[in-house]
Amino acid sequence: MSKIGDGERPTMGMVATLAGVSTITVSRALRGSDLVRPEVRKRIVQIANQVGYRMNVAARSLRTRESRTIAVVLDQYAHENQSHADPLLLALIGGLLETLTPANYSTLLTTHEHFLSSGAVGADGAIIVGQGENAHRLRQVAALNLPIVAWGEPVPGVNVKVVGSDNQMGGRLAAEHLIARGRSRLLFLGDTKHPEVAARLAGFREALAASEAMLVGAFPCPFTPEGAADAVRAALDDGKIFDGIFAASDFIAAGACDALIERDIAVPHDVAIVGFDDAPVASVHRPAITTIRQDGVAAGRALGTAIVNMVEAKVAEAPAALPVELVVRETS
């Protein structure tokens, strides 16, 4: 292989000369194009790496009007108990990278506020994680007319493709488990302004309707232990009698459990509890929390596949709701 002179900046033309191909073949090979035979593509990539050549992505973007970037847009909301370092979110991002990187897309992690204020930051498409109350976050981003896929629950009137866990099935599993444990007066904790939470409650109600158990109350509360504890205290002070709780998240379940124990109500002897997500708090809390597990890695892979298909105008079937499973621990 010919050498590049000291201080000489490698170019696509130099790579083409060393590989004995045209510059367009080099360009296609470095973009992973199937138009270049795999063995030729591999040789070109090896030569480019050896001479230190990197494609000018900015210049290419000006020519093609494509950035090869997918924005992953997170809800700004975070608190000390549930942050952007939540393992479910990190698993989701890991699944995204597993899908987007081989497809030759960069991943830009940002927040709703920054994404909207920066004029969509030049992304080819966006993945929305966190629909917001009444899906207001989703509606804001949908107005940008970009290819968009959201993580969550479909929302009537919002024309955005959605990938999500089977939240209704999760609600049904929670109800069936509590009923099987002999619980008949059940309480729901969670803010149904969030589409995913509303779906969980709908599934819960559906299973109760086929049984002799009843929903004695649905108390809205934020996704925090403190908010859940306040809701449980309010239910008790209001004279609600219940022997089971379905919480819309594990943080809510943890707060509910603490509030019951504070009032000398034994968990699970007096009240059984089921949460949702299988966040780390579910296994480290004492008593450990029974929960409905979501698969974050599978979610990320499904989101990545959906946005690539949309950006590249590939015909693909609408993704099915991802399965959830019951994980039984000490609170039930």
Structure, explained:
By secondary structure, the chain is α/β, with parallel strands linked by helices. 42% of the residues lie in helices and 14% in strands. It contains 13 helices and eleven strands. It has a five-stranded parallel β-sheet with strand order 2-1-3-4-5, with helices on both faces. The protein has a four-stranded parallel β-sheet with strand order 7-6-8-9. The chain has a two-stranded antiparallel ribbon with strand order 10-11. Helix 1 packs across helix 2, helix 1 packs across helix 3 and helix 5 packs parallel to helix 13. It is elongated. The protein starts with 11 loop residues before the first helix and ends in a 5-residue tail after the last strand. About 4% of the residues have low confidence.
Secondary-structure map with pairings?
Elements: H1 12-19, H2 23-30, H3 38-51, H4 57-64, E1 69-74, H5 87-100, E2 106-111, H6 112-117, E3 125-129, H7 136-142, E4 148-151, E5 161-163, H8 167-180, E6 185-189, H9 195-209, E7 214-219, H10 225-237, E8 244-247, H11 250-262, E9 272-274, H12 280-284, E10 291-293, H13 296-311, E11 325-327
Parallel strand pairs: 1-2, 1-3, 3-4, 4-5, 6-7, 6-8, 8-9
Antiparallel strand pairs: 10-11
Helix pairs in contact: 1-2, 1-3, 2-3, 5-13, 8-9, 10-11
Q: Numbering strands along the chain, what is their spatial order in the largest sheet?
A: 2-1-3-4-5
**Fraction of residues in H or I helices:** 40-55%
Distance between the termini: 69 Å
Shape: elongated
Largest sheet: 5 strands, parallel
Low-confidence parts: 57-64, 78-83
Cα radius of gyration in angstroms: 25 Å
Q: H/E series, N to C?
A: HHHHEHEHEHEEHEHEHEHEHEHE
Number of strands: 11
Structural class: alpha/beta
Strand content: 5-15%
Query: Number of helical segments?
Result: 13
| Average pLDDT reading | 86
